[in-house]
Batch of 2 targets.
Target 1
Amino acid sequence: MPAHRKKEPFVKLQTIRNHLRQQNLAGWLLYDFRGQNPIAASIADLDFTGTRRWFLWIPADGEPQWLIHSIEQATLDKADPELSGPLHLYVGWQEMEEKLRSILPQDPSSRIAMEYSPNGAIPYVSKIDAGAMETVRAATGAAIVSSADLVQQMQAVLSSRQMESHRRAAAHMLAAKDAAFAFIGQALRRQQEITEYDVQMLIVERFRAADLTWGHDPIVAVNGNAAVPHYAPSAQQHSPIRPGDLVLIDLWAKETTNPDDCFADITWMAYCGAEPPPIARRIFDVVAQARDTGVSLISQALEAGTSLPGYEVDDAVSSVITEAGFGEGILHRTGHSLGPNIHWNGVNIDNVETQDRRTLIPGVMFTIEPGIYLPQLDFDESGQPKGLGIRSEVNCIVHDGRLEVTTLPYQTELIPLGS
């Protein structure tokens, strides 16, 4: 397969081989049909993967080997030249299965990594269907194991350039957050009407002016709306922002210079008045303590050289909230992988939605964003339920021996607005 990009030779292949050997894996079998496995396409460096089934076998020892349909040779000519190796062609399904047997190890004790996650625990890497697994098992008798750790190593470890793109995006997010709260505060002091949607559009305009991309629009949520973690206002449905309200702003975006530029994603809270109610202050303090507990646990582990899986961080963070008496208000994991997509393919800080046993390795980035969501809570003097959701979110990059929090400063109290 001819080269189409100039690359440092054999870095990718050697990294994969090192991981396979360390984990006692016979190899990594990449499989795709019509783009259903974007991880395979990314590793192979293919923008288009054709219309027929293809396999790429990367053994712990030996050359990579390709198995593709005979009419798809031109499509795969553009694959990463570092993964060049013998090319096997098939026409019919019987020939495909026969040649697959000739490529893969015929050893029932061997272990083959594929984009599979036991019990669907890590959906981000569950990209192959049960039938493909059955075909591979029938061809080899080998055990199929998850490639999740391999995927993290190959996709979620960021380059220094990607980290810098994230830091610039983080600066934009913090500035947009400040502008949004200033906009709310000014409207309250002038007794002007203002809505969640108005604030959302202000943030969007700042994103456009900075030439950022963001996907769906940011969250601006008051009171009980913020108790729905993924609530977002729209032109058709939004609430006014009034004195005495709590306001949550969650915003995310990235630069557009390179496709693999990385997102920043932050959440801050404010109170529309001079002095937040005691219960709101109390809940925010618990959330901030939970956030800081997660950051401290990771920092200590990295400084000590201790391996730490994502689920253990989630446990520590959630325990702060539960021990404070607000466990029923936990509705999501502590954090998610962050990268070129807002939810990326590295370790999540999660033992709520799934149990993520991947470890925090140098180069990965993620959020720490504990929240407490209480839709029926009374927090004003009227005695009528207003409901609240309180979340605080920071972004973190793992380095060798240390943790970088890229979205400082920490929020330490609810921001008073309109006083």
Note: The chain has a mean pLDDT of 94.
Target 2
Amino acid sequence: MGRKIEFNGKVIAKMGIFTALSFVLTYIEFPIFPSATFLKLDFSNVFVLIGGFSLGTIQGVIILVVKEALCLIKSSTVVGQLANLIIGLAFTLVPFILYDLKRNFKTAIIGLIIGVLLMSFISLPMNRYVNFPLYGIPDSVFVSIWHIILIFNLIKSVAISVITLILYKRVKGLLKF
């Protein structure tokens, strides 16, 4: 059975903390593939996931949406942020929903595995049909690097998942204010 959706002062404060931590981490990003330097690894979704696991699905989605809205401040285009939002929802929504239904470590792992697969595969059509055309990048470039995009998103989502699982147990006690 799912959790009751709450928006009291404590929950909103926690959402604000997770959003702020997540947004700050967007500034720490780096490319891992020289042939696709536009693909930058950042760990901002770690705090989106921790927020969603600890507070609930709706709250986690709000954390993600607000983080991406804040990223518009530092971005020169809406296109990238919209793609990040859609790919982020693909990555986080299933883990949030499953964890709301059954709050245990096994469910979190199953949800994250599904999220990793969804993020990795949704990133391909998002890049091919949204990002590349709107940035004016020829389709031939996508065809030559689609596998790098897939591998990048697998690496990114697995790394975020592992870090989330390690940190969640450690910060769970801090969340009881």
Note: Strands lie at 30-31, 40-41.
